[in-house]
Every structure is written in structure tokens, then in C-alpha cells.
């Protein structure tokens, strides 16, 4: 449903999931014939996915903060500087 709501063409979706023409047509026909039920179930899935994302983000917050303060491993100082520069640029873009 994510791909359909984002208006990806059926040929792209078919290739992405390695489906036959018959399979993608059957899926699209089912969705169209049962649109209200499919949409309702899709909203439940989206809600659960967001709840899971928030749960894991909160659970990993302390770990991520701890890792962010760790010094680079010996020999990786140059990479560390580049990473910090990219993070700074990303924060400016946001």
C-alpha cells in the first residue's frame, strides 16, 4: 500500500516484489474491490509501525547518546572528523 499511495506504477511494484503480471493484477483488483477494508487495515499497520518506531527510538536513545560521546578508534581519527563535519552540515540543512 505504501507504493500505491505514493503513486508508484504497477510495473515498478511488480518488479520490486518479483511478482508475475497475474499476481500484481490480482492484488490490485483485490485492493480496488475491497478498498475500504484495505484502507482501514493499512491505517492500523501504519499506526503500529509508528508506535514501534517510537518505542525503539526511546529505548535506544541512551545508547545512541553514549555511542556519540565515544572517541574514535585508533587510526580512524580522519574518518571521525569527516563524520562530524557531515553531521554538522546535516543539522544546518534541517
Description:
This is DUF433 domain-containing protein. By secondary structure, the chain is mainly alpha-helical. The protein is built from five helices and no strands. Helix 2 packs across helix 3. The model has no long low-confidence stretch (mean pLDDT about 95).
Short summary:
With 94 residues, the protein is mainly alpha-helical. The protein has 5 helices and no strands.
How would the blueprint of this fold be written?
Elements: H1 2-5, H2 10-16, H3 21-33, H4 35-68, H5 77-93
Question: Any key phrases for this structure?
Answer:
mainly alpha; 94 residues; single chain
Shape: elongated
Largest sheet: none
How many strands appear in the DSSP assignment? 0
Give me the Rg, rounded.
Answer: 21 Å
The chain-level mean pLDDT equals 93
Q: Estimate percent helicity.
A: over 70%
- Strand percent estimate: under 5%
Number of domains: 1
- By DSSP (H or I, 4+ residues per run), the number of helices equals 5
Parts with pLDDT < 50 across at least 5 consecutive residues: none
Structural class: mainly alpha
End-to-end Cα distance, whole Å, is 28 Å
Amino acid at each position: 500500500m505504501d507504493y500505491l499511495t505514493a503513486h508508484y506504477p504497477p510495473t515498478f511494484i511488480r518488479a520490486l516484489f518479483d511478482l508475475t503480471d497475474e499476481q500484481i493484477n490480482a492484488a490490485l483488483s483485490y485492493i480496488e474491490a475491497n478498498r475500504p477494508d484495505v484502507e482501514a487495515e493499512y491505517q492500523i499497520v501504519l499506526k503500529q509501525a509508528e508506535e514501534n518506531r517510537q518505542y525503539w527510538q526511546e529505548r535506544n536513545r541512551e545508547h545512541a547518546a553514549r555511542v556519540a560521546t565515544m572517541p574514535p578508534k585508533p587510526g580512524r581519527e580522519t574518518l571521525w572528523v569527516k563524520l562530524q563535519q557531515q553531521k554538522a552540515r546535516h543539522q544546518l540543512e534541517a
